[in-house]
Amino acid sequence: MSDTQLYPTPPAENSNSSGERKKRQVKQVVLLFSPQLMALASLLPSNRDRARMLYALMHAYGLLRPFATVAPGGGSLQHGKRGSGAGGGGAREEEEEEEEEEGEGGTQYRILKPNAATRADLAEYHEREYLDYILSPSSAQAEGGEGQSALVLDDLGLTDDCPLFPHLPAYALLIAGASLTAASALLRGIATYALHWEGGRHHAHRGRAAGYCYVQDVVLAIQRLRSLQPVAQPARASGDIVGAEVGEQPKRRARVMYLDLDLHYADAVCQAFAHSRAGGVLTLSVHHASPGFYPSTACAALTRPDTADPYTLSLPLARGAGNGTYARLWPAVERVTAAFDPEYVVLQCGLDALAGDPCRTFNLGLDRAEEGSLGWMVERVLGWGRRTLFLGGGGYESANAARAWTYLTSIIAGRPLNARADIPDHVFFGQYAPSFTLDVPAGTMRDENTREALDNIVGVVDVLADRIRGLRCSM
Ligand SMILES: [Zn+2]
């Protein structure tokens, strides 16, 4: 396949999205990756070897090495149509400051090695008893909880879908650590967009594993983005001003919006920030909810327009939700974003809503050319012009997960692959039968979201967006 087929003509930049910032700038994109992260993530019992397939495919497409899509001075990009800085020539060291010059554009893409979290980092959210257990050396040896107390395991959620597995302590520390490394890179201005596809473990509770999630990297990352920063940097908009006493430099906390596109309700993340720090963190989960569907909680129902907490939003969709349903809903999501005006966005890109997932509940496509698809939504989020942390999540058809996160990486890195690109020959090539192409097209599942139901959801969201704007204006 030629370069032209791999990388189609880029779309017009950032058109008509809420919160669009007109100034063009060099975007710093970092992918959190290390061989150790891949090896540990591949041990996750619910997603064995998914990470190996993902990074093998990314390597095959040249996404595990740095590049630049545009650099002042011209030249041509290896494999790309735009810009200069062949191969890793345009990559920067971690500590370099971001350029934000008027009139400059393009992307610097590079790989950032994650640091493991410490126990103290995890203790910012998790309970001590839970950490004692999942970080103990005996847990590192346990396979399926052998030799452990069944009562204790049950109490900590370490049974059924979250069994103990070898190297769980190292896994928990590195998955959380990678999300924290990513958050720090955003906070320090090293990254405009940070990607950690092994993160997004949105069901892990303070004292209990749940839904294939052992460690709550999402909450930890949001907490870090909310850490006190001197008023002068890095963001300049208003926020929670703290500690402005005489002789003391005032500090503030940024506003963070969490948007969750996984098939399942983001229960633990929404719960962590509900009714707290009003106005600081907004959580918005778009998911499926029906009797008995995981996680079974009343909170997964449509948020009431008169809710006491308009910063914790839940948008359930009926079975079969596809591109058209997401396209209908998306402008309302953007109105919430504009009303809240976040400085940081955390986007959970779980893939179990994609067509072909074994959950067989939603029917979302991938190709950004299709309005409402996952690729299209990610491109819209880029158009918001906010510093963003992109996380993974569910996704149980490993080849499709590898396709999707590889494709999304290429979009975020400013060098979008063609969804119809052939899968390159590599060690897992045979897993991509029968299409052997990158795309995950929507299937033929019937979309049960009626126009009336979607109109109702959009109406409720619009009321909530107005309330959020009103609350922000009165601060
Ligand atoms: Zn899920």
TrEMBL record:
Gene3D superfamilies: Histone deacetylase domain
EC number: 3.5.1.98
Keywords from the named record: Chromatin regulator, Hydrolase, Nucleus, Repressor, Transcription, Transcription regulation
SUPFAM superfamilies reported in the protein's UniProt record: Arginase/deacetylase
Ranges of compositional bias, category Acidic residues: 93-104
Residue ranges with Polar residues bias: 1-18
Primary location class: nucleus
Compositionally biased spans, kind Gly residues: 75-90
Biological process according to GO: heterochromatin formation
Histone deacetylase domain span: 108-227, 250-411
Region (Disordered): 1-23, 75-111
GO cellular component: nucleus
GO molecular function list: histone deacetylase activity, hydrolytic mechanism
Subcellular location: Nucleus
Statement: the UniProt record of this protein carries the keyword Transcription regulation: yes
Enzyme class per UniProt: hydrolase
One Pfam family, short name: Hist_deacetyl
The family this protein is said to belong to: Belongs to the histone deacetylase family. HD type 1 subfamily.
Protein name: histone deacetylase
